[in-house]
Design a protein that fits this description.
The protein is mostly helical and about 200 residues long. The protein folds into 2 domains: about 50 residues, Arc Repressor Mutant, subunit A; about 130 residues, Tetracycline Repressor, domain 2 (Orthogonal Bundle), CATH 1.10.357. It has 11 helices and no strands. Helix 4 runs parallel beside helix 8. The longest helix is centred in the middle third of the chain and has 24 residues. The C terminus is likely disordered.
């Protein structure tokens, strides 16, 4: 069977939908075929092993959650500082929240990594690469915070998204308000004071 990028992408999107809806246990080649509406055996032709499938899903998550270049340019057009950092964090939260299915699939893969070493190998590399890129971007943009602060924001944003995409402990507080508080609370005092005063 001839392979093509469009079908591979369609299968990966189907896999993310299955993950978000049914969890890792539902992620089978046959389930991908059904979800994508392709002949039985198509998914196994593209992804012969679980590791190959996880690689493809991680790549697709990265594509679908990637920031819009024009939005990034706009975010970087002001003065580099806590307010700009807050705008970046807010954009990340909005993107991941808007792509609910993709973000839930990412959480499912991270949970599956606890149970399956082959998934842990793929996802561990993917997460570390992404974190290194975030630190490098922050430094190049002249934004406040180093690796320790970026790690803290990853922990906080992951928790915030889990709360907002599943069962929230405080659904009435606007997400932007939470982001403002995170920036003020997690950046070092000299960098975080008044961080969000110019973000509206």
């Amino acid at each position: 069977m001839a392979r093509n990028d469009d079908r591979r992408q369609r299968l990966a999107d189907a896999g993310l939908a299955v993950l978000a809806r049914e969890g890792a246990r539902g992620l089978t080649h046959r389930a991908l075929d059904r979800e994508a509406g392709v002949p039985t055996g198509t998914a196994s032709n593209y992804f012969r092993t679980r590791a190959e499938l996880v690689h493809a899903l991680a790549d697709r998550i990265g594509q679908r959650l990637a920031p819009d270049p024009d939005t990034v340019a706009g975010l970087r057009s002001g003065e580099a500082g806590p307010a700009m950092f807050a705008d970046h964090v807010r954009d990340i939260v909005r993107r991941l929240g808007a792509e609910r299915e993709v973000t839930l699939a990412l959480f499912e893969l991270r949970l599956e990594a606890v149970r399956r070493p082959e998934v842990a190998e793929v996802m561990g590399e993917w997460l570390r690469t992404g974190f290194a890129a975030d630190v490098a971007y922050n430094r190049a943009a002249g934004l406040p915070g180093g690796p320790a602060e970026i790690a803290l924001f990853h922990y906080a944003v992951d928790g915030l998204l889990l709360d907002r995409l599943t069962l929230s402990i405080d659904p009435d507080t606007p997400t932007d308000t939470v982001v403002d508080a995170l920036v003020d609370g997690l950046l070092p005092p000299a960098q975080g004071a008044g961080a969000t005063s110019s973000t509206r």
